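Example 9 (inverse folding). The structure is encoded as follows.
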């Protein structure tokens, strides 16, 4: 009888942030030993030879469109894109048809996921007009990730009304994640680009001020012990508000780390997204905040829409870009380019989101944790092509851009999935 199901031999791993070489043994879906040389036999040996063995990425912000909008994506295709790209846990957002606003709609998604999901998946429930009691009944469900709050209108019309938010935060001891563009600022700026706005004015119609006001509203609510998280930071000024509020966590999306409003012109509506892609000084500030840890996590805000939907006129075309295929390769490219340390990249992709979500069983290569991991060759690259993508929407804002290579192999609970 072999002692282990799987042993990764001579893997490069991060141990307390330090670059180390070790054998990593897996048994029963868990990491059971990490040593310079693991003695004993295994059913499968993987010779790592200089490649990194990294904890599976945890993407705490994806829109898998299932049910109701499955021509854009569904749980099967979205989680396939995840695992191909090294993502082993995703958290789905509630703006589906029907929206996730109750125990019944949460369980319907979880049931579907049990049949078709390729990776672990949790679901956010939206705070709506009058569903605090409904959300309370979701607490304790294994698939419940937390509460999503929309402070500004975006795809799906799930705006949270004033007053409800304060009551919900008092009543529900859970993670709250915020789409933090403030609706009153958005309404004030509606007409700013004249009668025929196009995509070049998207970041003026939804200015940084909306994100700053949103962040201020959240900061004003924060008290010790609360779990408040700001989604997709997009502006340098937003960072300043958050710096002054200990205890708030936040995430940044790859598209805000990579693109500026100048890229939005040739891209047409493809880079139309909420919050918008802003200017170079914002991108630079977001990159350095990720590098120094002020921004804890990378999350995609994977928001697939079809090319046909995106080629409609600016005012009609939906906002959102896909990101699951490219999250890990784009973040590790920042490491290859010297913008980010390997330790910060792994923390932002895996450890920090797992901690924010309260998932203590993942996010690190460590004994006792789930064997969710991927193998990555640090000298590999990938120039993104349509044909390589697993997302159903079939396109990526990173097409023809050179990123770090995709994983050589991906394992969930010790089972090879890609
Ligand atoms: C998201 C979508 O399409 O669901 N779009 C987007 O631009 N990010 C909705 C959202 O999260 O705002
Ligand atoms: Zn989103």
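The amino acid assigned to each position is listed next.
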């Amino acid at each position: 009888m072999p002692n282990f199901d799987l042993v990764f031999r001579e893997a490069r791993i991060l141990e307390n942030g330090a670059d180390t070489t070790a054998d990593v043994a897996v048994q029963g879906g868990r990491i059971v030993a990490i040593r310079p040389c693991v003695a004993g036999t295994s059913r499968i040996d993987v010779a790592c030879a200089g490649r990194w063995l990294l904890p599976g990425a945890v993407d705490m912000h994806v829109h898998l469109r299932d049910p109701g909008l499955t021509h854009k994506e569904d749980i099967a295709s979205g989680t396939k894109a995840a695992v191909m790209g090294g993502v082993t846990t995703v958290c789905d957002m509630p703006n589906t048809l029907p929206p996730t606003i109750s125990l019944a709609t949460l369980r319907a998604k979880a049931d579907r996921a049990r049949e078709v999901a390729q990776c672990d998946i949790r679901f956010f429930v939206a705070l709506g007009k009058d569903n605090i009691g409904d959300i309370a009944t979701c607490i304790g469900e294994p698939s419940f990730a937390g509460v999503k709050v929309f402070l500004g209108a975006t795809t799906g019309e799930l705006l949270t009304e004033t007053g409800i938010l304060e009551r919900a935060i008092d009543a529900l001891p859970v993670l709250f994640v915020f789409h933090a563009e403030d609706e009153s600022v958005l309404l004030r700026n509606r007409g700013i680009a004249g009668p025929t706005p196009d995509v070049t004015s998207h970041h003026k119609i939804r200015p940084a001020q909306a994100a700053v006001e949103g962040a201020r509203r959240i900061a004003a609510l924060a008290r010790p012990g609360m779990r408040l998280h700001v989604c997709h930071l997009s502006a340098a000024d937003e960072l300043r508000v958050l710096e002054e509020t200990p205890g708030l966590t936040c995430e940044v999306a790859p598209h805000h780390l990579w693109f500026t409003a100048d890229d939005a012109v040739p891209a047409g509506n493809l880079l139309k997204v909420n919050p918008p892609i802003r200017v170079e000084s914002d991108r630079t500030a977001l990159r350095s905040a990720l590098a120094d840890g002020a921004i804890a996590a990378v999350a995609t805000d994977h928001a697939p829409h079809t090319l046909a939907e995106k080629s409609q006129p600016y005012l009609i075309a939906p906002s959102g870009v896909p990101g699951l295929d490219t999250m890990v390769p784009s973040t590790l490219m920042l490491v290859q380019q010297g913008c980010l340390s390997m330790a910060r990249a792994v923390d932002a992709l895996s450890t920090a989101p797992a901690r924010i979500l309260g998932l203590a069983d993942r996010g690190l290569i460590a004994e006792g944790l789930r064997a969710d991991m991927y193998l990555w060759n640090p000298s590999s690259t990938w120039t993104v092509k349509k044909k390589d993508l697993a997302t159903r929407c079939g396109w990526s804002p990173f097409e023809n851009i050179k990123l770090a290579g995709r994983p050589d192999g991906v394992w969930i609970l010790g089972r090879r999935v890609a």
